[in-house]
Amino acid sequence: MVAKVLQLMGYPVYSSDQRAKEIMQEDQELIAGLKELFGEEAYLDANLNRPYIAAQIFKDSSKRTAMNNLVHPAVRKDFQNWVSRQKSDLLFQESALLFETGNYRSFDAVILVSAPEKVRMERVKERDQLTDEQVQSRFNAQMPEEEKMKLTGLVVQNDGNHLLVPQILEIIKKFQ
Length: 176
Hints:
60% of the residues lie in helices and 10% in strands. It has ten helices and six strands, in the order αβααββααβαβαααβα.
């Protein structure tokens, strides 16, 4: 939601998760690496078999790490190419695993979009049609929210009780 607001305000926003999905469909070297890691069933009819891969990476952390080691460098390269084409002085990258990868260190600033775990759980369940257990396994694979807050002073509360636009405008003012 915060990324959508930023885009509506005219700022370029790179969606890491969306681009990762696209790159995993387009990049032949990455496709070969994923097939080697997960087997031919990683792709069905030339489409990434997301449910199969999700089941693999959330039950085996070594496979999750191996997949991240394949996908994240491809996304970073794509992001750098995207940055080189932008005209704005203020750019944003939306990324679910920015802290977990350590990539947050490469930015001038990081904005954490935060909500209580119960709210996040319901949103992910609805968005991705997952069970409580599936969502919890994804949360368990991520850095705790409290740890992320220690790494950035910029937090937007997206809990349904705070207005987003005033929070976003306040942060943007710091960079103008």
